[in-house]
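Problem: given the chain below (212 residues), write out its structure.
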Amino acid sequence: MAKKKIGRIGKIALVALVGSSLTGSFVSGYNYRDAVQNEVYPPLDLDEKEVLMKLDGNPQAIQEFIATGKFSYDERFIGSVCPNNAPFCEVWTPAAHYLRTKKGDCDDIMALVHYALNKSGKVLFLGGNPSNHVVYVYPGENGLYGVVSNGKLEYSPPKYKTLDEIAQTYAGQYSVYREITLPNEDDVLLYSFDIWDKIKVGPVEKIMIKKK
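Solution.
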């Protein structure tokens, strides 16, 4: 099925399997492009477009919207997009998917936040723990940074001077971090998981977070 052009907000959403590890292959040996060749989501309806407009450029509104969602690793998709026809699999969902389902874990909000904040920030990957974590870091006034996360208590208005300062707040839980720069194309953020062909990951060497 060919991709349908329906405007900036009303894009259709494709899904694809992507590995979440930042070491080795992102795809973990699975050819997700073959799996999602004909998988599509319906266009956003008027209510969903209105939600995106209310979130536009407003970190606090975005955090409040995320807080109304449900945390879950159980990500279910149309058709057999997961290996071995599993009912769910770990992927970074596109903005349109999370907007519609309001369900997922920390990585599932990244495309939505990046899109709604006009691609102004970047993702901070926190590792060194069996369950890794990501948060979105956005720039504010006076060169300071704020945080949006699936964890409501992690939200912060711009008050941090550097990404390292943000990472330090997680020092008791994680030992390394990396920066991830997401692509800026609307169609990629809204409906495509070819996003992984376009992200930029920080230095290969893991940056140690100093223990407090």
